[in-house]
Design a protein that fits this description.
Length: 340
């Protein structure tokens, strides 16, 4: 059999062994490499001493980060953050997105080892697998894991929040409520650019202490409020804009439709529901990130998954919304604006 020399196994090997590069980044975040270097360039020995690297590992580890484009090393052997790492991986910056990477390192990396079991059984493979208790109730009992999870949700929402704050026409809107909004990245971004507005995060009660820390840090304690409750069981706080970001993918179809109808009923005429998720393209061929998130929902939830833009548009129309418009957001995410 002849061999086409233009076809090589390299892409397959890179993909199959991609967990190595992933774990290298996750360990770098865990070790605080990027925050240390945000204070200025350092040589290898100095970095190793501060973050606790063994002499056997330090050179290959730091230079691997160089090869991955996360660090730069000058001719004198001084390491610096790459421009992207400097913005998004320094814990001291409000643009830090490492929370989701911390959560991935602490939780998801190990759970994904059970993907094959999830594919065969259709059952989640997270903390619930071992305890049988509801996911959020289980996680909130561990203060460190709970804080890690909330910071993770906030980390992935931070760049999306900035995009939403500039993409949507907020003029004339007075109050935004983020349903299941974790620490409030989206309303915080909106309120910072629209000082005339106020906002609320509607979340489970155990979120409140971490939320209050976040709001205080951002100087929004007088404008961004917390409303504790369960959006399946309790009335929704009044608003002229609701946000459901990375919420629908946690639930099955019946639960999604229930939440959308509930939001519709609670909004005033002319009110808007904003839905964003890593929605799968309608042709189901292109949004790899959306498919990966959907498989993560298989592992991490009882009935969740991602869904297509067409699916969400249909559900919103069925809930009663008169105008439904979708457009790409950033990074594989889609946002839908539905007006009552």
């Amino acid at each position: 059999m002849s061999v086409n020399e233009s076809i090589t196994p390299e892409p397959i090997l890179h993909l199959g062994l991609g967990f190595m590069a992933s774990k290298t980044l996750l360990s770098a975040v865990e070790l605080n490499i990027f925050t240390v270097l945000a204070r200025g360039g350092r040589d290898r020995a100095s970095i190793a001493a501060e973050v606790g690297l063994h002499p056997r590992s330090s050179a290959d580890f730091l230079d691997a980060l160089v090869s991955l484009g996360l660090l730069n090393r000058d001719d004198e052997g001084i390491y610096h953050n790459s421009p992207t790492a400097e913005i998004f991986l320094d814990r001291a910056k409000p643009s830090y997105v490492g929370g989701i990477l911390e959560m991935a390192n602490a939780r998801l990396f190990g759970f994904w080892d059970n993907l094959t079991d999830a594919l065969r059984t259709g059952t989640q493979q997270n903390e619930v697998t071992h305890t049988g208790a509801p996911f959020f109730a289980t996680l909130s009992q561990d203060p460190l894991a709970w804080r890690n999870f909330l910071n993770g949700m906030n980390g992935v929402s931070t760049p999306l929040a900035a995009a939403l704050a500039s993409d949507f026409d907020w003029s004339g809107r007075q109050h935004v409520v983020d349903l299941g909004g974790a620490l409030g990245a989206v309303p915080a971004a909106v309120l910072q650019s629209h000082p005339e507005m106020t906002g609320t995060v509607f979340e489970l009660l155990p979120v409140r202490p971490v939320f209050e820390e976040f709001v205080t840090t951002h100087g929004l304690s007088d404008r961004l409020f917390f409303h504790g409750g369960d959006f399946f069981a309790d009335p929704l706080p009044p608003a002229d804009v609701y946000v459901m970001g990375q919420i629908l993918h946690d639930w099955n179809l019946e639960q999604r439709q229930f939440l959308l109808r509930k939001a519709y009923d609670a909004l005033p005429d002319g009110g808007t529901l904003i839905v964003y998720d890593a929605m799968i393209d309608d042709d189901r061929r292109h949004n790899t990130y959306g498919f990966m998130v959907s498989l993560n929902m298989l592992i991490d939830t009882e009935g969740g998954s991602e869904y297509t833009v067409a699916d969400a548009t249909t559900w919103l129309a069925e809930a009663g919304f008169s105008t439904v418009n979708s457009r790409p957001l950033i990074g594989g995410y889609t946002t839908i604006y539905a007006t009552k």
